[in-house]
Design brief:
The complex is a heterodimer of chains A (199) and B (385). Helices cover 36% and strands 24% of the residues of chain A. By secondary structure, chain A is α/β, with parallel strands linked by helices. In chain A, helix 3 links the parallel strand 2 and strand 3. In chain A, helix 1 packs across helix 2. In chain B, the strands form three sheets. Chain B has an eight-stranded mixed β-sheet with strand order 1-4-8-5-9-10-11-12, with helices on both faces. In chain B, strand 11, helix 8 and strand 12 form a beta-alpha-beta unit. Chain B starts with 13 loop residues before the first strand and ends in an 8-residue tail after the last helix. Classes of the chains: A alpha/beta (199), B alpha/beta (385).
């Protein structure tokens, strides 16, 4: 399982109800069920991945974060997870609102566009940055809403969300504990990982 | 088309329930017979039973040789030892639906008031829920408190939805395939063309064809032909037949036949040998009447309120009879109740019939879902010798 997913699994309480949006082949929900006894389910856009997940016995449905979250009832889950997907949805604000409507906590991870290496590439080369996380040409990237860790803090403040926990994470998904301060994290963190609840 | 011999009488495996059944229409059948087939072995805890619900023109012969056609069962590529629904592990039950003509009580059964005659078109209108109630009697008869799974495609999928809604505690897992919570106006329209074809047959005799030893074979064959087109996709028809002519003689109005024409005529005539016209009318009517939301004040989510059943819905991308949007409607209703739902649309160009054909993605999905449910249910894998 991806290292960042292990980190997310560590943030989720055992036996809780979890919805993983953009769950891919279902690795996280499988892990949460097997190791933490969670009632974990997934939504995934890519039908091939959905089929693979269901064929492994995982409760996954084909769906779109932008349109399908409205069908879920209020507070149906303890955690709603959105890993490395926020930057690719059409309406990130609405998706976050829905996540915190249907879940008590939202767990969100995203690649940090404020990382120094991206800044340097744009500054020095005047070209759209390319890294492991931002690895497609600008005209074919699914990432339509890049943001920085600092942007995300501002968004949480504006929307009135409480940041219960946050971490800066390196490219492999390992926790980066020395990046404790938002400004440092914004400069040196490859990814941001947030646990939110409504204010 | 040649006149076809009437349906042969066959001794089906069956149970008679002398207490009868009160139907949704208000009338009561004094006694109910349910014909069925089983495969595999019921375990000691009676926890490994899978009920397979059949589609409109299928029957209980899901995985063994059909006694009338001599052909393999309609789902023998899915149900059997070591197959997707593994009869080495599960006890599979398939019952002929109420209103059918393969041994369950239906228009060909003796009339309650005139035992020397069949019901014919006097058979009371039955609903999907009535069919499910009759199946429930059979399941109770086996002493099964909870079915491990109820699985079915098309009309069988309607029954799966009805099972999960009417007897939620008795269904651990539900797999409605290529189906919908109600028939669309288009579906009803196609069924009506089929029914009108039967009515227009000179051998119909106002539904009492059996009095004359006749069968409205031509009308029924046309009904089957129309229905058969709706089961296929344009791509599937084109791939199979294209515009090929059966014989490339001179162009006349009557003689030249496209291959697709003779195929449909074969399908129609084969069908007449194994299906009763009044049964066809009864069952198509039941499908048209089916509306699970209407049974719950117009709110489909209420049909599954608080359900603990695990659902897996499957649709096929080229199915225009029961399109993916119809499955998604059910999925969204289930989600509104925070139900445990898996949903897959299988890419296929084979149309509605894809669920009966060799679709590896579908079979993998079904097998994986069942395996996952077995794990959650705590069913132990029986060692296969």
């Amino acid at each position: 399982m991806r290292v960042d997913l292990q980190l997310i699994a560590g943030l989720v309480a055992p036996k809780s109800r979890v919805l993983d949006i953009g769950c891919g082949d279902g690795a996280l929900i499988d892990h949460l069920f097997r190791t933490q006894g969670c009632d974990a389910r997934g939504i995934e856009l890519d039908m091939a991945l959905v089929t693979r997940a269901v064929a492994h016995g995982l409760p996954v449905m084909q769906g779109d974060a932008d349109t399908d979250l409205v069908h879920y009832p209020d507070q149906a889950f303890d955690y709603v997870v959105l890993s490395r997907t926020l930057q690719a949805v059409e309406r990130p604000l609405e998706v976050l609102r829905q996540m915190l409507r249907i879940g008590a906590h939202a767990v969100v991870s995203f690649p940090n566009f404020g990382h120094w290496y991206l800044r340097a590439q744009l500054l020095l080369k005047g070209r759209m940055p390319m890294t492991n996380s931002w690895n497609r040409m600008w005209y074919e990237t699914p990432n339509i809403h890049p943001c920085t860790i600092q942007d995300f803090f501002d968004l949480c403040a504006a929307e009135g969300y409480v940041v219960e926990q946050w971490l800066a994470v390196d490219d492999e998904g390992h926790r980066a504990p020395w990046r404790r301060f938002p400004k440092f994290a914004n400069l040196f963190g490859e990814q941001g990982l947030f646990v939110l609840r409504r204010g | 088309m040649d006149q076809i011999e009437t349906l042969a009488e066959i001794a089906h495996e069956k149970v008679v329930f002398p207490e009868g059944l009160t139907l949704d229409c208000g009338r009561t059948l004094r006694s109910v017979t349910v014909a069925f087939r089983t495969y595999g072995t019921l375990d000691a805890a009676r926890a490994n039973a899978i009920l397979v619900c059949h589609a409109l023109t299928a029957d209980q012969y899901v995985a063994d040789t059909h006694p009338l056609t001599g052909r393999a069962g309609w789902w023998s590529n899915v149900v059997g030892p070591g197959l997707t629904i593994d009869t080495d592990r599960y006890f599979v039950i398939c019952a002929n639906v109420l209103g059918g003509c393969m041994g369950s009580t239906g228009p060909r059964s003796p009339h309650d008031d005139r035992p020397n005659e069949p019901w014919g078109h006097d058979f009371p209108p039955v609903t999907m829920r009535d069919m499910v109630r009759a199946q429930k009697k059979l399941v109770d008869h086996f002493g099964i408190r909870q079915l491990f799974a109820v699985v079915g495609g098309s009309m069988g999928g309607m029954q799966v939805l009805e099972w999960a809604s009417t007897y939620p505690e008795q269904v651990f897992a539900a797999v409605p395939i290529a189906t919908a919570a109600h028939h669309s106006a288009q579906n009803i329209a196609f069924n009506e063309v089929g029914r009108q074809a039967v009515f227009a047959d000179p051998d119909w005799h106002d539904g009492e064809y059996w009095r004359r030893g006749a069968t409205p074979a031509r009308g029924l064959a046309v009904a089957r032909m129309v229905a058969h087109i709706t089961y296929l996709s344009e791509q599937a028809l084109t791939r199979k037949f294209g515009r090929r002519l059966r014989d490339a003689g001179s162009l006349t109005l009557l003689d030249d036949r496209f291959e697709v024409e003779s195929y449909l005529q074969y399908q129609g005539s084969a069908f007449v040998r194994r299906f009763d016209a009044n049964s066809y009318l009864s069952i198509t009517r039941a499908m048209d009447f089916f509306d699970l939301a209407a049974e719950h004040d117009g709110d489909l989510a209420r049909a599954f309120a608080g359900t603990r059943t695990r659902f897996c819905l499957v649709s096929f991308s080229s199915d225009w009879l029961f399109p993916t949007s119809a499955s998604r409607q059910v999925v969204n209703a289930l989600i509104r109740g925070a139900a445990n739902v898996s949903f897959v649309e299988i890419p296929s160009d084979k149309g509605h019939d894809a669920f009966l054909l060799d679709e590896p993605d579908f079979h993998r999905t079904l097998a994986g879902f069942i395996a996952g449910c077995a794990e959650h249910r705590g069913l132990r894998t029986r060692a296969i010798s």
